[in-house]
Amino acid sequence: MAGERNFLLGHGERLVAPVATPPGGATPELPYTAEEARQRLLPQVEAAVRAFDSLPAEACPSGKTVGLVTLHPQFIAKTYHPGDFLRDNGLSYIGSRGAKITPEKWTRQGEPVAMDTTEIFVSGRRESFTHLADLLQSPGAFPEGSPLQKMEAFRAPGASDKKRGTMPLPQTSSLFEVGLHIPSVDRDAILRSFQRWARACGVSADLDRSIPVSGLIFMPIAAHTEELDELSRFSFLRVVRPMPRLRTLHPVERSLSVGELPPIEVPDEPVIDGSIRMAIFDGGLPSSGPMSQWTQSFDAPGVGPVVEECVDHGHMVTSAALFGCLNPGEIAPRPFNSVDHYRILDDEEEDSYALYTALNRIRDVLEEKNYDFVNLSLGPELPIEDDEVHPWTAVLDEYLSHGQTFMTLAAGNNGNNDWASGNARVQVPSDCVNALAVGSANSKLKNWDRAGYSAIGPGRSPGLVKPDVLSFGGSQYEPFIFLPRNGDAPLSAMGTSFAAPAALRMAAGIRAHFGGHIKPLALRALLVHCTERGDVPIDEAGWGRVPDQIEAFVVCPPNSVRVLYQGTIEPGQTMRMPIPLPEDARTGNVIISATYCINSPTDSRSPSTYTGSAIEPVFRPHAEKFNNEDSMHPATAPFFRSSDFLPENDLRKGAHKWETTKHKILTKRASSLLRPVFDVRYLSRLEQLAAIHTEKVEYALVITLTTSADADIYNKVVRAYSGQLEILQPQVDIPISVQP
């Protein structure tokens, strides 16, 4: 093998140490005085109380109801949320959602303009809301600095707040999906009351199929459209929408006719790493076939008869996970790992309840068995929504938040739908913030683009960059090639269903190469870090196209050094993470590429503040340059910015802080850098309103330094950080080609 192999360096976390930070800034100016706020909110709260009093007792479990508090757009950070004020008045926070309003006043110059804000759902006994109205009638009852001054509005939610996509629909009975607020203290009372209320409205609620997730519960209901307004009077009902179908076989994913293809020789070898556990949930595998020695096939409990078209899909998805896209006439590569394939699709996929049945089958398997890698190439036939989180997304994100599993999700094949309406956006559950959503590139060649059918972004904030990445998924002129089912000619097709497992295969290959100390979070960071950016916009390609060769991830490029950090940060802590640039690198340019990933707890009750944890890296390029003589730390310079995700005017101020993945490439003059560092602060917002204990967060950081004037930078870093950084040695022999 020609050339020297400069493998990835690991244990960057050994360079990391905590650092003290200065105290926060001054108290902000408020838009309203306490008396102005009282006078503004009094008629609004009184109107809400009248609406609450008009509700039947059956619609108010245990005498409780739900109101909506709209925060002033300048005061939506979690430190401004009125948690203590609500509790003091017998009210409880139970969720939130994003909204856009024009405030009556603001603290900036000029007339107020439309701004993004947060609406808070608050619950309490009707008497508590009445008591608040009584308090507001007393001038001087609230001191200056009261949380009232940060509230813009208060109201009782109506049917229009709760119904999504229900008009126009036929007046015949249809299946809908409802989501209920279900705080733990009132859980049983709410469910009993909703069953009674639904029956009184002529609606059939199926609690047996319900799916609970973090303070919400979703369930199917059978109802006539005209019954939904009355049903929506139930105080704890948050959303009702038509039940989406389960997307399985999009037309582009069916086998293509490309003429006679030369046969592909199947290797007769075991997998490279038998310790890796990978699961695929799909349509099943043939009872006998060329992949049998590397796969096990299971039927999920309760699954019905086999559908051959679904088996074709399952076979192709599994072939992509084991081999990637194959080359006709050549030998298939030796698989990195074996696959457990779970058949969750059957002849009842047209059943209205298939969406809930499939999710429950997936959840049951994941809760019982621990898998390192999982692929899903199916889900609801539903583009993501900005103001609600679907149960598929909530269940999977909750499972993945612990960081033990690397999951790829097919972004969807709806990219040719209407863009302006949002119908081309990535489909649920591709909005998971703890998984890798994969779209399709149209070619393996250098001149690639997004495949026209591949769903586009943006995702919901947080989670704006969706799809996260593209991987080759095939196109009409360059289809994806699979092993045949039974010794026939190779199969061909195209779709994000195949791009996702092909990307998963790369992650499994890195793990097989370096062993189990490379955690799932680090694998996600490496896949994002090593993407080929191209000229495709970020809302179409995400961070870029994933390479299809292992060497791109495990071997440093020429004139470069790549370092992996894996560690944890405690709540409230700031950690200094040195960028290992040798001090004698003083000429030419240095390209710094950095990628951060974390797994975050999620809160499906609050789509606009969905992620509970974040890290905020601050770049300090020069250890001896300070803003002034009183500065505690070296001066900062821009690195990660909100414009890395979307144009500034499309992104709520500060929202980019809460992204679980941050990636940037920046070129600096070497002379402007001296012992550069990232100071990384751990942010948490869950505990303020939800009384959730905040735990330490795991992070993965990948940094690549590329120099224009020093071809020996790799060896210089190895020598300078000897005893701290280590060359990650291959654990198994995987053939890779390295250029001399």
From TrEMBL:
First and last residue of the signal peptide: none
GO terms for MF: serine-type endopeptidase activity
Superkingdom as given in the UniProt entry: Bacteria
InterPro entries listed in its UniProt record: Peptidase_S8/S53_dom, Peptidase_S8/S53_dom_sf, Y4bN_pept_dom
Gene Ontology process terms (BP): proteolysis
Residues annotated as domain Peptidase S8/S53: 297-543
Name of the molecule in the record: Peptidase S8/S53 domain-containing protein
Species lineage: Bacteria, Bacillati, Actinomycetota, Actinomycetes, Kitasatosporales
